Structure formats: C-alpha cells, structure tokens
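Hello Y.,

Per our agreement to keep a running log of every chain we model this quarter, I'm adding this entry. I've kept the format consistent with earlier entries: sequence first, then predicted structure.
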Amino acid sequence: MSKAFDVLVIGGGPGGYIAAIRAAQLGFNVACAESNAYDDPKGEPRLGGTCLNVGCIPSKALLASSEELEKIEHHAADHGIKVGSVSMDTKKMISRKDEIVTKMTGGIQYLFKKNKITLLKGHASFAGKDASGYQIQIDGKEKETVTAKNVIIATGSKACHLPGVVVDNQLICDNEGALKFDVAPKKLGVIGAGVIGLELGSVWRRLGAEVTILEAMPSFLGACDPGIAKEAQKLFAKQGLNIQTGVKIGEVKADKKGVSIQYVDNTGKAQKLDCERLIVSVGRVPNTDKLGLDKIGLKVDERGFIPIDDHTCATAASGVYAVGDVVRGPMLAHKAEDEGVLVAEIIAGQKPHIDYNCIPWVIYTDPEIAWVGKNEQQLKDEGRAYKAGQFPFAANGRALGMGRSDGFVKVLADAKTDEILGVHIIGPNASDLIAEAAVAMEFKAAAEDIARICHPHPSLSEVVREAALAADQRALNM
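Predicted structure for the entry above:
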C-alpha cells in the first residue's frame, strides 16, 4: 500500500519547505520531495533549493567576506586603524561559505523532523489521479509511488544560458560556478548587469579582478527607479566596475588561455573582450519540465510558467497549486515563501492574501539597492499625480560615523491623498531599511505617517523619515 499524504510539496526550496512547514503547523500530514543534491558530499538531496545552496545565502557570504577585505584595505585608515600587508585566502573564503550553506540546509532538516514532515528523496512527477488523490512517482535510489490529496509545485528555476555558449562552470560559469572560483581571475567578464551579475562581479572585483559587465539592454537597471539606477551606475563605475549597456553579444570562445567574447557596443562598433573567466547571468527559467503535468491535464505557457489563479496560486487541476519561480511574478525567495504560506492556509480553509505591490526588491551590492512599490517612471507612465521626497545619507550622522554616506532615500506619495506609492533606497543597510516602507505600504500609510513617527537618533532609519518629510517640503536636516 502506497504512502498517503494530505499535502505533498514538490521541491524543497524557499517556497517548498516553507509551504511544508506551514501546512504541518496547520495539522496536515505533509511530505516534501527533493532530488537535487547540489554539492552534498554523500550525494544526498539537499533542502533549501537554489537560494540556500547556490544562490542567495552563499552569494551573501562571499559578498560579506569581500566587503571585509575592502574595508581593511581601503577604509581602515579613515578610522585611524593602521594595518600591514593584507591578503585573501580564497579557499578559506569558499570554505566558510560552504560551512554556512551546510548549517542552513541542516537547519531545514531539523525543522522537518520537528514538524513531522516526511522527506521523499528523489525526483517527483505526476503519474495520474484517482478517487484517493494524485499519484506522485518518486524516482530516487528506490522508486515508489505515493498519493496526495493536495499538491504544491515549488520546483524553482535554473539559470538561463545563451544559445551556442557552453557553460562548463569552469571557464564559462553561471551562478553556480561563479560561487566556486578557487582564485580571483585577473580579468573577469560578466554577461548581464542584473542582480547576480552585479553581486558576483562586485565580489571578484574586490578580490582584485578587472571586471567588465556587458548588458544587452540600452539602460542600466531598468527595473529600478531611474534616479537610483543613475546613482548606482556612477558609484559602481567609481569602484572600478566597467559596465557597458546596449551591447550585442556575438561569438563566445573558450580555450586554455581563457574566454574571448565578440560583441558590438552601443555605437555599433565591433569589440572583443578577452578574460580568464566569464559569468553568464542573463536571467532564469522555471523548472517545469519532467513534472508529468500532462498526466493531470496541465500545460505550461510559452515561457514555461504554470498558469495559476492570481489570488490563490491554484492551477486548473483541483487541489494542485504552484508557487515561486514556476509562476508569474518576480523570482524572489521571499515572494515564494509568502506564496507557500498562502497556499497552505488556503488548503486549511483560511483566506490569506498577498499584495504583490508590497513585495520588496533588494540588490546586495555596496551600497545596497532596495525598493518597494512603484518608481517615478511607472507613475509617469500611469499618469498618476505624485510628489517626491529625497534625502541623502551624506546628511546623516550615523552614516557619516560608519563611513557609509553614499546614496539616498526617495519617497513617492500620491499628490492628493499622500498615500505612499513607492520607496527607493540606495545606501547602507537598504535591505533592512526597506522593511519599514513595506510595512507602511501594507497598511496604506501616508508619507506623513512615517514623518510623524519618532525614529531613533542617530540611526540610518532617520534618512527614511527625512525623505518622507521632504515629500511635503519640510525636511528638518537639509
């Protein structure tokens, strides 16, 4: 007799493992299927998905290590700290990153045991449906078929590769290979000036690489507020990142000497970039193949995403839901987590909701970039009457004391009602500061609400308050 579950989650990444935990908290008999071992020394499936294993967590560990090096090399003297020769043990840095990943993934295994969640080790696919529920085939070391009344698809995404460009994760790498360099290359090429390209390019630039980033789009960080993108491009250029936009990538060749990239620049002139290693960071595609969706009457759209109801994440198959990178919306770990919680609660008969306009975005460069809601260009395109308030970190005592005074906060509010429509930050700890804006927008707060809340002094959060005050032309410290 096959195992039977109330809820079966396919995929153990942020959307999947959080969905499994929330469903278990709600009293369901839950299983989660995962097949990807990543770099597990025993070849065992690892929980946490791309985010914990080869994405968010390891990249932030490397960013932190490289930032520490840069502080010592270039900023310690500003504080009166004298240091001698400084070097980076790259292998130790990578080892530290791996230790953090192992600790985090092991923590999820503990949470599964705590919540009595069954881990099914193997690739899961639909085999059919009958009166007892959906039959899910698990292909692992041993094959088995289990039954579930409800299924949550949370299989995430994988790196998109360029046609004709072979990613070997040695010379030509995607996000996975770029996290494992044994030494910093002298010259590093990056195709794609998005989140991954900028973050990993920044890591290896701090460790001594000469970094050139080639971006096909004519503008830099097109998803950002234009003012934020302009400031970011200026600061990154000052740091040494060579960012070229509006390029057309041609032939890419790899040999023993390195990688050669033929491209046409934004003036139409043919160019060539020679580098030791190349990172290809041109987006991600959903992992929706090999799920056996046809066995239950489901199809993906032209981009490989699973169509769902926008409010419930329900597919066209009753009792089957999909969350995270396999459905519409931004490919963000925290978005996947919230959808996982939403689906578990819907299965339990609750009525949760997600306001996708209030999901924050973050780029973990230095300075960090974060935003929530609409940007100025979007509001102009909508014809929405708005007002803007902006305040620089250079006028903030805490930022000056930290030696982190680049950037600013911008608050956009409705011209008549004063409701906050968007908040955009480039500066220190932007990833933490943006949470206040997300809370305010969830509660439909006005800019005046933030302006009248007492913020601690001295703190970086005062810049958010001053930007809110500036939206009404009454900033106090500028």
